[in-house]
Amino acid sequence: MRGFATLSGAPPIIIAHRGASGERPEHTLASYTLAIDQGAEYIEPDLVLTRDGVLVARHENAIGGTTDVADHPEFADRRATKRIDGQEVTDWFTEDFTLAELRMLRARERLPQLRPGNARFDGLFPIPTFDEILELARTRSAADGRRTRVYPETQHPSYFDQIGLPHEGALLSALSRYGFDGADDPVFIQSFEVGNLEALHSKTAIRLIQLVDASGHPADRPDLSYADMMQPEGLAAVARYASGIGPAKDMLLARDAGGALAGSTGLVARAHQAGLAVHPWTFRAENMFLPANLRAGADPATHGDLPAELAAFIAEGVDGLFADYPGMAVAARRKAAR
Asked: What's the distance, CA 157 to chain centroid?
């Protein structure tokens, strides 16, 4: 087995993005279970809060697109318009429901046109709590003889803090109950915001990851662009509170004018120079998400050559991969090791 160009020289970790979300509705115990079956080391829940302060797994606090809440007439009056991270959103929101009320809902596939196979599971799975996800990880670790790891993301932390539902206490308490509280424990906490990570850095030794998008700025830092954060001085500042970065994948390997995969931007090398691991997002098999030269035909839902894209990023030296199809990422890493 050859070495890798990662920060440590170890193989990149495989992070199941919202579980095996290419094959089961995202953020369900079924999705996380399949991801563990496929060999992912980390399962990734996005965390939002209920009205009674319970952490649950949803990509957004707006749940109209990922649950059957619209089919519940008893919750029709919960639909509201709110300002979330500077944008007006009209939907149903987790913070307006108790956990008991959310238990009445069932998950739905977020991308049914692209993933009709997932839609056949609509209505089957409840919204899981973070504790249930941690319990799944513990149970499977005991059964499989390898420790399943968790990689939670705090969704809209400054917004939740402003409405009196901060993430930090509930998150750290839950992790501690399941034995995750040190720098060497197999857990990362990630956020697109800065203040949330700085606050966590002062409270825990758990490794933190600064998420960055290809454009814009952290919701809590309109004075600080993501682009500036990825320059040497910005990376040095991130390294004072975080162990790594989670950039949009196009920030590492650019695309040319025709949308084909092009050359390195040098960001992996700059981050490694600052002592930061690099965990890009998100690797998906559908044509819609792939570089033009790796697509198979014109149908956005058809699967293209995801293994080739994964191989290119592994060769670039990334330290981890967020994948909707973790089994394919595991296979690509195995092939790269040969």
From this structure: 15
